[in-house]
């Protein structure tokens, strides 16, 4: 069963991430190799046309796909991104929601896919990624 999440800013599914604070990423749901992460609109992260910059959407997808890979035990594992491919389908002009599923999980390697939608449900971007699971140490700031 997926778990709804209520965490302070800068914490994404139990892990402190300063970058998540910068982008105001908010974990929405995690569990059963699935994850959802919301990102509010911020004009500081737009391109010259006023659309959310592709690099910001890529970062959102990276975090969401990685979270899906560690959804079986979010506080125990971190991940290292080995590969991320993003396809942009439409401009993002407001708050967005990313969702991801881990398609295959081995002892150390995971493969996931995800997507970003706007508030109207329009599909904005698709991504696939390969990630390495890293067991976290008690006092790790990794």
List strands and helices in order, with pairings.
Blueprint (H helix, E strand, L loop, with lengths): L2 E2 L6 E2 L2 E2 L1 H6 L2 E6 L2 E6 L14 H16 L7 E12 L7 E10 L3 E10 L4 E13 L7
Antiparallel strand pairs: 1-4, 2-3, 4-5, 5-7, 6-9, 7-8, 8-9
GO molecular function: acyl-CoA hydrolase activity
Keywords: Hydrolase
Organism: Lampropedia puyangensis
Give the CATH superfamily. Answer: Hotdog Thioesterase
H/E element order: EEEHEEHEEEE
Rounded radius of gyration (Å): 14 Å
Strand order of the largest sheet: 1-4-5-7-8-9-6
* Major β-sheet annotation: 7 strands, antiparallel
Strand content bin = 35-45%
CATH topology: Thiol Ester Dehydrase, Chain A
Shape: globular
Number of domains: 1
Please state the second-level CATH architecture.
Roll
Give the CATH class: Alpha Beta
- Number of E-state strands: 9
End-to-end C-alpha gap? 28 Å
The portion of residues assigned to helices is: 10-25%
> In terms of structural class, how would the helical and strand content be classed?
alpha+beta
Q: Number of helical segments? A: 2
Give a structural overview.
By secondary structure, the protein is an alpha+beta fold. The chain has a single domain (3-135), classed as Roll (Thiol Ester Dehydrase, Chain A), CATH 3.10.129.10. It has helices spanning 18-23, 54-69, and strands at residues 3-4, 11-12, 15-16, 26-31, 34-39, 77-88, 96-105, 109-118, 123-135. Strands 1-4-5-7-8-9-6 form a seven-stranded antiparallel sheet, with helices on one face. It has a two-stranded antiparallel sheet with strand order 2-3. The longest helix is centred in the middle third of the chain and has 16 residues, at 54-69. The model has no long low-confidence stretch (mean pLDDT 91).
């Amino acid at each position: 069963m997926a778990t709804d999440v209520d965490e302070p800013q800068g914490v994404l599914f139990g892990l402190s991430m300063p970058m998540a604070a910068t982008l105001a990423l908010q974990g929405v749901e995690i569990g059963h190799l699935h994850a959802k992460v919301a990102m509010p609109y911020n004009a500081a992260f737009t391109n010259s046309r006023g659309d959310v910059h592709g690099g910001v959407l890529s970062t959102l997808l990276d975090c969401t796909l990685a979270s899906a890979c560690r959804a079986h035990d979010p506080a125990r594992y971190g991940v290292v991104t080995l590969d991320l491919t993003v396809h942009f389908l439409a401009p993002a002009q407001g708050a967005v929601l990313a969702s991801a599923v881990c398609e295959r999980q081995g002892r150390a390697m995971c493969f996931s896919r995800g997507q970003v939608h706007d508030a109207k449900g329009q599909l904005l971007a698709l991504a696939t990624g390969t990630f390495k699971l890293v067991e976290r140490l008690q006092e790790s700031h990794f």
